[in-house]
Amino acid sequence: MVLGNYIKVYEDQLSKTICNDLITHYKETGDWETSTFSSNTKNTGTKSVSMKQQWITPKNKFYGELDKTYKKCVHSYIQEYPRITPVAYTAFRLNHYGVNGFMRNHTDNIYKSHGQKYGYPHLTSLIFLNDTYEGGEFLMCDSQYKYKLSQGSVIVFPSNFMFDHEVAKVTKGDRYTCMTWIM
Fold first, then answer.
1. Which of 43, 63, 117, 179 has the most CB atoms at less than 10 Å from its CB?
2. Do strands 138-140 and 165-167 pair parallel, antiparallel, or not at all (unpaired)?
């Protein structure tokens, strides 16, 4: 089994115009908060992550476009791996990593996340909203796979112990992504 076969990249899924408009809108009007890192036993605060986050729910601007993009890519993924049956998508988290922003290596599970259902998602999906930064690579599987995707591209991968991932330190610019967990 080659782990990289289960990591799928879908290029140019969200238009550059929508990506740029989304970033501008939330930079100006967003309710940004400092992200923290939690496990089932404790909240480690900001020593494991340095980013700001904004949650996008169905009542928020751009939700419809994001929802359509995620569902299209996840549908493509499960056409190839049909044993996955999605039952729900979590709210979408807009991530902003400034200079020196990072997220340490981890696997996805939901212990405490803004009222969302606790548990282990089937899949994780991220939309890369810009590519005008340096550093900030998306590293997976003990850094065996390294991604710096172009604006509007989407990555989908299993949310289990075999697909650990991290965001390397941003060295220049601002890195914006949006993610969801598929339950």
1. 179
2. antiparallel
